[in-house]
Amino acid sequence: MRKSIATVSLSGTLAEKLTAIAGAGFDGVEIFENDLLASPLSPEEVRARAADLGLSIDLYQPFRDFEAVPADVLDRNLRRAEHKFDVMERLGSTRLLVCSSVSPDAVDDDALAAEQLRLLAERAAEHGIRIAYEALAWGRHVNEYLHAWRIARMADHPSLGVCLDSFHILSRGSDPGGIEAIPGEKIFFLQLADAPLLAMDVLQWSRHYRCFPGQGGFDLAGLVAHVLRAGYSGPLSLEVFNDVFRQADTARTAVDAMRSLIALEESVARRLPQAAALPVPPRPVVPTGFAFAELAVAGGDEVGALLRALGLARTGVHGGKPVELWEQGQARILLNAGEPAEDPSLAAIGLETPDPAGSVKRAQSLLSPTLPRRRAPHDAPLDSVAAPDGTALFFCRTAQPDHTSWTDDFTGASVEPAPGEITHIDHVALTQPWHHFDEASLFYRSVLGLRPQESLELADPYGLLRSRAMTNSDGTVRIALNVAYVGSHASHPDVSWQHVALASRDIIATARRLHALGGVLLPIPGNYYDDLEARHDLGPERHRMLRELGLLYDRDARGEFLHLYTVTVGRVFFEIVQRIGGYDGYGAQNAPIRLAAQHATADR
Ligand SMILES: O=C(O)c1ccc(O)c(O)c1
Ligand SMILES: [Mg+2]
C-alpha cells in the first residue's frame, strides 16, 4: 500500500521534513498547516520540492471548527475555506481534512452539520477538492467515527467522505468493527497512530503521547484489517503527535516511522487472506539464546578480575584481535581491548539464531543498518546489525555441525572452563537514550520478533528510570531496555550503567564465595532486609542468610528470584541471578535499592 506521513510527526522545518520523509521511502505526505505557514517556501515551491523528491501531497490539514454553526459564522467559515482551497490548488493537493468542531459556536444538530458540510463539499468540488471529515475524540458534538459517517452519509455528496484516525477510534474504546459498514470509497483517508495505554485526558494523550504503530498498546493491525475489508485503497498514513519525536533527529525518526509501517503491513497481510498481495518481509528469525556478551574494556584488566572472581575462566584469545573469551558453562563473555572506549562498556551481544543470514535479511528489510564485518581472513562469518543505541548484534551459531563456530577463532589459552555454578547469560540490560526508547522497543519487536513485557518505572535517587524487557517465548533471550533520565545533578548526570546477568544454579554458593573475596559485591543496606522480613515470611534462617550474604529477593505468582550485584567497573556491572520455579521477572522491586547503592559507591 502507499505509505504517507503527516509533517507534524517529525521535527525540523518543512523542507527538512520533506527531505527526511522522501529519504525514508515514503510515497506521500500530509502537510500540517502550521508547517506551511511557518515555511519561507511558497506553496508552489513546496509543490515543486515534493515533486522533485517523488512525494505526493496526499492531504492538507486540519481545517477546524466548520460545521453546525449559525448563518453568520457559516459565511465566515466558507470564506476561510475558499482561502484554503486556493492554497491547496497552489500546493497541488486535492484532499482537505476537516476535523469535527470543538467550538462553542457549534450546535448539536446532525442535520445542520450535514447541510453545511454538503455546502462545503460543493464549493470544494469546484476546485477539484474532496473533504475528509474526521471525528476528533474530543469533538464537541461529534467524537465517534460512526457519528461522523452518519453525518457524511446524510450530506450525501460525492466530494464528502470520512477520515478515519486510529487514535480517535481506539482511544475512546470504540469498536473498530463498525468500519466495515462504511463503503470503502467513502473512506477518504486513513491516519494511523498507536499510543501507550494511559488513563488520562484524551486530548493530552493525543497531542503528546501518540507513537508509531507497534510502539504502543493499540491493535492497529486489527483496525487496518477492518478498513481494508471495507474496501479502502488509499494510503496508510502516520499522524503522530509526540513530544519526543518533535525534538528527535528528523531523518532517523522518519526511518523509525517507515519501519513501523512495514511491520504493520506485514501483520495485516498475515492476518487477512485477501491482503496476500501486500509485500511482506522475510519472517523474523527469533533468537534462541545468548551466544556471548562483548565488553569494550580499553586495556586494564579490572573486568577480567571481576570475571575471574565470578568463576569464569579465560579460555581463549582471538587469533587476530585483542579479544579474550571468558567462559563458564554456556556463559561466554568477550573482552575486547581493541575498540575505542573510555570506560568499560557493553559493545555487542551475540545472539544464537537458527539462521544467521535470515536474521540479517529480516533486519535489512526493516531498515536496520548492517555493520561492516570486522573480520580477519580466517574469521568465522559473523553477521551483525546495529541496534538503535549503537550496540552491535551478532547473529551466531555456536558449536553447531551446520555452521562454523565463532568460537573457533579463539585459541591459545588452554584453560578449560572451571566447573562452577554459573550456567548461562540470563539477561542483558542496555541503557537507552531517553529519546530512542520507543524506537528501540519497536526494533527488538519487529526485527528480532521479541515480545515486549510490561513497562516499569524504577525510582533512582536522582531520577526515574523506565524499564521494559523484550523476551523470546521461552525466556532464553531477555533484553532489558532501561531509559536513562536526563540528570541535572552535577555529580550524578545520568545513569548509563549496563549489565550482564549470569544465571547461577546455586546462588548461595556463588554468594558465599564472592562474600569471602570481599570488595566484589554491591553492599545492600540493612533497611532493605528489615522491610523484606515485613513483606515475606521466609523463616528466620533464610532471612539471616539473605542479609548476611547481601542477596536480594523477589517472588511472583510462579516462583522465587534470588539475585546479587557486583560493583561497577566503568559503565558495566554484573548481576548473578537464580530463578526458582517459573519466576519470570527481573527483581524490579529491588532496582531502587541497587541504584541507590551504586550511586553511593560511585561517590566514594
Ligand atoms: O489534535 C488535533 O487538533 C488534531 C488535528 C488533526 C488531526 O487529524 C488530529 O487527529 C488531531
Ligand atoms: Mg487525525
From TrEMBL:
Cofactor or coenzyme needed: a divalent metal cation
UniProt KW keywords: Dioxygenase, Lyase, Metal-binding, Oxidoreductase, Pyruvate
Residue ranges of domain VOC in the record: 424-579
Lineage top rank: taxon: Bacteria
Record-level Gene Ontology MF annotations: 3-dehydroshikimate dehydratase activity; dioxygenase activity; metal ion binding
Ribonucleoprotein listed as a keyword: no
One Gene Ontology biological process: 3,4-dihydroxybenzoate biosynthetic process
Annotated a divalent metal cation binding sites: 134, 165, 191, 239
Pfam families: AP_endonuc_2, Glyoxalase
Positions bound to Mg(2+): 427, 499, 575
Function: Catalyzes the conversion of 3-dehydroshikimate to protocatechuate (3,4-dihydroxybenzoate), a common intermediate of quinate and shikimate degradation pathways.
Name of the featured protein: 3-dehydroshikimate dehydratase
Phylogenetic classification of the source organism: Bacteria, Bacillati, Actinomycetota, Actinomycetes, Streptosporangiales
